Every structure is written in structure tokens, then in C-alpha cells.
Amino acid sequence: MTLGIDELAGMLSAEGDEMEALLESAGKLKKETIGDGIYLRGLIEYSNICRKDCLYCGIRRSAAVGCYTLSEEEVLECARFAHRNNYGSVVIQGGENQSREHIETIARLVRQIKELSCGGLGITLSLGEQTEETYRRWFEAGAHRYLLRIETSDERLYRSIHPDDSLHSYALRLEALEALKRCGYQVGTGVMIGLPGQGVEDLARDLLFMRDMDIDMCGMGPYVESQQTPLACASGPRLPLEKRYGLSLKMVAALRMLMPDINIAATTALQAIFPQGRLRAIGAGANVIMPNLTPATYRESYFLYDNKPLSFDSKIIENNIRYGEWGDPVHFSKRSGDC
Ligand code: SAH
């Protein structure tokens, strides 16, 4: 079956038994295509300082939270923890900062993490839009994956959730994704699900966007209001959280059907709605989990949205976790022609 917009929108509208059947068959397809291994990425929330002012985000420039940036030693300690515990990879995520000092520090940290793990730890960066030169610099330092969500592939909707200025340009976001590919990264993107004004057709188009971009990884999850952000305070109809949760699981399943060999993360925002969120996503086709390694004292300053879970109980899926493996997306090796 070719999956076009109608088929995908149909999947995203499934309810009850039909929805359960969709999630189950996507879970099965994952097993058959890439196996049932789950890969860990230790998440290091490096800094909440951000030059952007996205209308939905809890760490936007005008958010009233205390600023923090982890010290280099704190980041290295997280990486040592990940290495000792056989995590395979770490993700350094943070607000968007294009200062020279930031760029140098990240390059240094990447090199040091490579060194302390004797090349063992894979490194993903998620630090927003940067120039191609910066992306290249970090790649040469040893980072090999980059996550940059498009947030929504619909330009009109994108504009409605960002300030209307050149710093928040949809075209530049797209260009950044292209630049990442040119540099040789395994590229991840994703969207928020259940945004005000977003329908199942928009989400179906998001899925087709990811296929057309030929991405290697995806992290997507429900939009969850973050108090005092303009989008949370705006009036207008909203999808109940439970619906956003169901839609997110269906998005994971539909994407697995569309792109069977990519890596799909079971994201933290899912868990913010239901404690079983991430496990359900694994059942519906996700194969990556990002346990948070950020030192506890900083976690409250990195509240992207309300009720963000502070930890994760992994016992139930323990048997499937592939410790010590990078877990590169099969899609990437095919795309770059080495298998
Ligand atoms: N600054 C970096 C990454 C940090 S934010 C970047 O631009 O890529 C990481 C992700 O958190 C964002 O891409 C966004 O999709 C998600 N996020 C932010 N606010 C959110 C909210 N209110 N609900 C759900 N996800 C949110």
C-alpha cells in the first residue's frame, strides 16, 4: 500500500480497536525490519539560555526562569556516567546560542567526551540553528547526529507559533536541516502534535515532509502548555491532552509504517501526559529512549512545558535495551551507501 495523505490522515483518525490494531502492526513492523532493540541516549540539558522567543517554549528568551549553563566538568561527569552505564550515546541539548564562546565550548566538550570514552560514546547535538560552518566544526570535533525539529512543516502554522521576525524564519529552519545533511550528520527532526489550529491533515503532511526530507531520526511528541507562554495564554479551542497523547502514539505508528528503518524516539513529553507514555510509544514503533542525565539541581530550570517528568523507570523494557551500542539508524547507512 502506498501511504499518501488520505491513508495517513485515516490512520491518525483511528480510534478504539482500530487504533490499537494500528499501533500493534507498527510495533510488529519495527520488530521485523530493525528488531526490537531499544537504544539509550543520555540527555544532557546543557543550558536554558536561548536567543529565540518561540511562543510555546518554557525556555524562550523572555521566560522568567533563572538562567543556567552547566560547567564543562558537569557535562563531562554526565558523559562519564553514560559511559560507565553503557549508554552508547549522549545528547547535548540546549537553547540556541550563536556566541563564539558557546561554539568553542561545545566543540571542546565534544572532543573531550570522545576522549574520555575512547571514542565509545556516540554524540548527538540539539542546539538549534547555527551556521553551516558551526555545524561543520562540531561534526569535525566528533558529533555525528543532530536533532532539529521543524516543529510543524506547515509554514502558516509555523508562523502562528513563532514571533513574526527574521530570527524565527521557517525558510531558515529548512535551510539549517539541509546544511546538517550536507555536513554528513545523521539528521533528526520532528514536530509538536496537537498544536492549536493543527488538524490530522497537517500532521499527515508532517509525516510526508519527513519522508521527503529523507531524515534518519525523529523525535516528536504532544504539545503541552507551558505556563505563561503566549501560546498557553492565548484563547481559542484546544485539543484535550488525552487526544494529543493518542495522536502522538498514532504519529509514531504511522511514521514507522512510512519509514520502517529510521530511529524514532519515545519522547519525554508523552510521559508528561501519561506515566506509561514512553512504553506505549515503544510498542507502537519507537526504538530510542533518552533518559535525562542533567544534574537534579538544574532540571527545574529546563521546564520546556508543564509537568515535565524528572525521571524514568526503565525496568519493564530492560530486556530489550541494547547497552553499549550506538544504535545508528539503518536508514542512514543505506542513505550514505555503505551497506
Ligand atoms: N533549542 C533547540 C532545542 C531545545 S528545545 C532547538 O531549537 O532545536 C527542544 C524541543 O522541545 C523543541 O524542538 C520543541 O519541539 C520542544 N518543546 C518546546 N516547548 C514545548 C511545549 N510547550 N510542548 C511540547 N514540546 C515543546
Topology, element by element:
Blueprint: H1 5-12, H2 16-34, E1 39-47, H3 72-84, E2 89-94, H4 100-116, E3 122-126, H5 132-141, E4 145-147, H6 155-160, H7 170-183, E5 186-189, E6 192-193, H8 200-213, E7 217-222, H9 230-233, H10 241-258, E8 263-266, H11 268-273, H12 277-283, E9 288-289, H13 296-299, H14 330-335
Parallel strand pairs: 1-2, 1-9, 2-3, 3-4, 4-5, 5-7, 6-7, 7-8
Helix pairs in contact: 1-8, 2-10, 3-4, 4-5, 5-7, 8-10
Concise account of the structure shown:
The chain is of the alpha/beta class.
Molecular structure report:
- By secondary structure, the protein is an alpha/beta fold.
- Strands 1, 2, 3, 4, 5, 6, 7, 8 and 9 form a 9-stranded parallel β-sheet that branches.
- It is globular.
- The structure holds S-adenosyl-L-homocysteine.
- S-adenosyl-L-homocysteine binds next to loops.
Mean pLDDT: 93
Largest sheet: 9 strands, parallel
Structural class: alpha/beta
Outline: globular
The sequence of SSEs as H and E is: HHEHEHEHEHHEEHEHHEHHEHH
**Radius of gyration using CA atoms only:** 19 Å
Low-pLDDT runs of 5+ residues are: none
How far is the first residue's CA from the last residue's CA?
Answer: 26 Å
Q: Helical proportion?
A: 40-55%
Total strands: the figure is 9
**Number of separate helices:** 14
Q: Strand portion, in percent?
A: 5-15%
Ligand kinds: S-adenosyl-L-homocysteine
Question: Which terms summarize this structure?
Answer:
339 residues, binds S-adenosyl-L-homocysteine, alpha/beta, 14 helices, nine-stranded parallel sheet
